[in-house]
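User: Show me sequence and structure for the first protein, then do the same for the second.

Assistant: Starting with the first protein.
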Amino acid sequence: MIIKEVMHHIEEFAPLNYAEDFDNVGLLVGNEDTKATGALITLDTLESVVDEAVEKNCNLIISFHPIIFSGLKKLTGKNYVERAVIKAIQHNIAIYAIHTALDNQYKGVNDMIAEKLQLKNREILIPKKGNIKKLTTFVPVENTEKVRNALFNAGAGSIGNYDNCSFNLKGSGSFRPNKDANPAIGEKGKVHFEEEMQLGITFPSHLEPKVLQALFNSHPYEEVAYEITTLENRHQHLGMGMIGELEQETSEEEFLKSLKTVFNTGVVRHSAVRGKTVKKVAVLGGSGSFAIDNAKNAGADVFITADLKYHDFYKTEGKIVLADIGHYESEQFTKDLLYSFLSKKISNFALILGDTNTNPIKYI
């Protein structure tokens, strides 16, 4: 198996198209055409992680966080980023990062947090906009079913918990083939009217190449008339954070205490309790202060995240309890998620969960 094939499986799970614009995801170091000896799955790529990869004969590191986040102008080994990259290059180890592409997946980072808390009725906290596209095309009536099924098989036509969704409107289309045409229907130089079906179908933006290929391969016309538009609809299964409900209500104090056990954290920093019960919980792994208002507006009793600053805690205004469980702690299950997914896709390949604890924060 080559590295590119492993990357394909990862991106099937978390397409890079959905990473945030500020992020740096994908293959950061190495050649995708290199034969992979094994993959070490980790949260961060540090020198110690590269050493572990060497020891375990893995020439690919699959990391949640990107070790290269902003541009590198020099590689002199003067900081931890440069040293990790240099060591990886010296040992011919490729580094791949997934980060916010996985953050934005419904079954990604935040779903793992929600699973640990046993939340039910889960929904994305901040659904992404501009990631649903609509294809409109025109097909001879007798060929409509073939084209429609080809588009469904390519992944189009799914809306939330429903699939095979399309709109079909019968009408009459006209065209005149010129002398250079090779028409499947009609004659050169003559206007032809054909009973056609206007077919409308939506799809997630990352599938556009696959959907268009399915359209062209299944459509009988030499020249296919079609339109693609980007919709403002929010994607129900794509976006940052998650919100759900506890099976049983509990007190704020008991819930906050339980977080220390569930996430094995040394401390939970939280805002003032309100003397109310906890039922609805919002979560966002990593730095999530930007989503405080979203959690409040969604009616969450508690918002669990990390990296909150002093003044962030004032933003509760008595409407919600904020709980900072730590950056590493909120994302610690991510490598287990990647390992579980890839193990089902690649059964005859060495996938190894990294043992190195990369949390830079210690507690006393």
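Switching to the second protein now.
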Amino acid sequence: MTEETPGFEEKPDVPSGATPDGAESKAAPSSNAEGAAPAGDAAAQIAGLTAQLDQVRKALEERTADLQRLQAEFQNYRRRVERDRVTVKEIAVANLLTELLPVIDDIGRAREHGELVGGFKSVAESLETVAAKMGLQAFGKEGEPFDPTIHEALMHSYAPDVTETTCVAILQPGYRIGERTIRPARVAVAEPQPGAQSVKAEEATEAAGDDKESGGPDEG
């Protein structure tokens, strides 16, 4: 006969993860929720980093465009400054040589009259050499066609041996620096005589007719 200990009851074995009344333990689902939460946080962090990266990339593109614009403006500024510097230099040289032209004219007249001798000759030639190094060039020759952009006609006449307005005498040479004319050549010009062209045209026509007749077949 088995003796029962008063005040104690035997409790059935309870499976792991179940409550004593047979219900499943609620501890397991809590572990799955804790695992899902970090995955959601990581996705949010990635999205935030992507947005920040887009902002940085956009800011970088804007700064790059600003830098390129500033570089282009600086290059344009350098070219403009260099162009202005060259222009100012050319103007200064032109002004200086323009003031020296009367002296150079006197040297030329002295040379024509045989007065360029001795120490004066040496000084004059040195001055002409310096002026040439600074870019001064004389122009104007007898027999060249008259060009109103570089010639100034002071005398006018007619000549039978010219076919167009021609410079027949250089009264004062012209001067230029590069492509810039600082003084036109002062010249005497001659034009064809009135009616000379028609006479020449008639003579040319008659000459052509004579050539045609002489070039025909010989009679036997």
